[in-house]
Amino acid sequence: MAAVIRLLKSTTTRRHLSTTTTQWTPHRADPKPKNIQWVFLGCPGVGKGTYASRLSTFLGVPHIATGDLVRQELSSSGPLSKQLGEIVNQGKLVSDEIIINLLSKRLEAGEARGEAGFILDGFPRTVRQAEILDDVTDIELVVNLKLPEGVLIEKCLGRRVCSQCKKNFNVASINAEGENGRPSISMAPLLPPPQCESKLFTRSDDTEAVVKERLRIYNEKSQPVEEFYRSQGKLLEFDLPGGIPESWPKLLEVLNLDEQEEKQSAAA
Ligand SMILES: Nc1ncnc2c1ncn2[C@@H]1O[C@H](COP(=O)(O)OP(=O)(O)O)[C@@H](O)[C@H]1O
């Protein structure tokens, strides 16, 4: 724990965050601020990894997904591997101690590489984790991604991962009717390029029974984390309007980030 406290403290910056609206205002003179300390929250399958990873490239800060840290530990056949496998495949949460330990190691390795700031994905997932993070650093923004539950299940069941490049794809073609005042939602499949096609696998925790258990656990243990940050005025609620082509420009817009700048850097 000492390492995570030291490391998180060392990257602390303070920025203005509007507490009255859901529109976050970055520092005007610095449209691509560094030393960002953001958190992505959201149910399993909502797309935390996709959008956190895109933003991390866009902003030049590391994307740290605790689910990836858990899967790396699982595949390393280290001492924790068997215990973690059982927990993950039941859709349960790994203990706060184990997660803090994995995150601390990841931050230490990043510090050695000269990394600054982070976009956390999948952490914190319990109020206790949020309190620990709060004690040691100043999270400036928490993006809460949202989709209807039926869409989340379809997305998890359609998810495929390339064993070589580790990228996520999705074979589901989603057309969900609007509910509870929400408009209908459509998402085209996100198909892999030809070189990944033969290397796709389905995560062992992406079965219908385990996804439903992960959603239940999210509602029980992780939803209170939303309230934790809402009461601090840090929560930016974002209802995804569709797939990446519809959602990404909208997300940049609510974050006051300049899409034009992205196009220019992609073309360079
Ligand atoms: N912060 C965390 N606290 C406890 N367990 C975690 C945490 N992050 C990841 N895990 C474990 O790793 C699994 C996979 O995480 P992740 O890839 O983030 O999945 P999801 O698609 O459910 O958001 C979780 O179901 C849980 O068992």
Automatic annotation (TrEMBL):
Known catalytic reactions: AMP + ATP = 2 ADP
EC number in record: 2.7.4.3
InterPro entries hit by this protein: Adenyl_kin_sub, Adenylat/UMP-CMP_kin, Adenylat_kinase_CS, P-loop_NTPase
Transmembrane segments: none
GO molecular function: AMP kinase activity; ATP binding
UniProt similarity note: Belongs to the adenylate kinase family.
NCBIfam families the record matches: adk
Name of the protein in question: adenylate kinase
Organism: Lithospermum erythrorhizon (Purple gromwell)
